[in-house]
Design goal:
Blueprint lengths: L7 H23 L7 H23 L5 H9 L5 H25 L15 H22 L11 H21 L5 H11 L8 H21 L8 E6 L2 E5 L1
Antiparallel strand pairs: 1-2
């Protein structure tokens, strides 16, 4: 996937990351417009983002989230240069999506805020664990060592992870699990509070922990060498 970073293929990837993040912001936040139904919001976000990942994953990898790009870098699946430039493209796409929402909706939906009854630190932990669940899902479904084609499983699994995360996180934090999603809506809406940092620190910290955890602890499981012992008791037996 690395290839030449100064090429049409690379710029096409950046376009996909920007456009995909624009769709993520629109579908992920518009689901909250005029709806207090958690199931409706979660399904709209999960299905919309899963479909967007499927649309662009063969071209750019379908990161659409700085936390995902950083996790892939930590897990040695993406170069630092690509991760950083992807993050910039995602930020541009996120701002364009937020501006589009501002033009289409009388009140911009999806502004992130710590829910009533929750503290800032609790909100930070919610964002951390929600993002950790997401990045581990991404790393697992893109792992070629697992022995199956992930092209269709990847968007489905990611969509389900986002659906579940929204069911849990909408009330305490509005479910950012993406630094772009967690910040650009508030900036465009002019509602930047002092606790805005939790939607950046929580996801990025989770991406570092998740990338390292998967690469150095979980992924080595797939490097195990198996030996087939033939014709033992009339059948084959597999041992590690």
């Amino acid at each position: 996937m690395e290839g030449n970073l100064v090429s049409w293929a690379f710029f096409r990837s950046l376009l996909c990351e920007a456009l995909g993040t624009l769709f993520l912001i629109i579908f992920g936040c518009w689901g909250a417009a005029g709806s207090g139904d958690l199931l409706h919001i979660a399904f709209t976000s999960g299905a919309g983002i899963g479909a967007t990942v499927h649309l662009f994953s063969d071209i750019s990898g379908g990161h659409l989230n700085p936390a995902v790009s950083l996790a892939l870098f930590v897990a040695r699946k993406c170069s630092l240069v690509r991760a950083v430039v992807y993050m910039l493209a995602q930020t541009v796409g996120g701002f364009l999506g937020a501006v589009a929402l501002l033009l289409m909706c009388p009140v911009i939906p999806g502004v992130t805020v710590v829910g009533e009854g929750y503290t800032t630190i609790q909100g930070l932990f919610f964002e951390f664990f929600g993002t950790l669940f997401l990045v581990l899902t991404v790393l697992a479904t893109t792992n070629s060592k697992r022995g199956f084609t992930s092209s269709y499983l990847q968007p489905l699994a990611i969509g389900i992870a986002i659906f579940v995360a929204h069911l849990v996180l909408i009330v305490p934090t509005q479910c950012g699990i993406n630094p772009v999603r967690g910040v650009v809506i508030n900036i465009v809406a002019g509602q930047v509070a002092g606790d805005i940092w939790i939607w950046v620190v929580g996801p990025l910290l989770a991406s570092v922990v998740g990338g390292a955890l998967y690469e150095f602890v979980l992924d080595p499981h797939y490097n195990t060498t198996y030996v087939v012992v033939e014709e033992q008791n009339g059948h084959e037996e597999t041992k590690a």
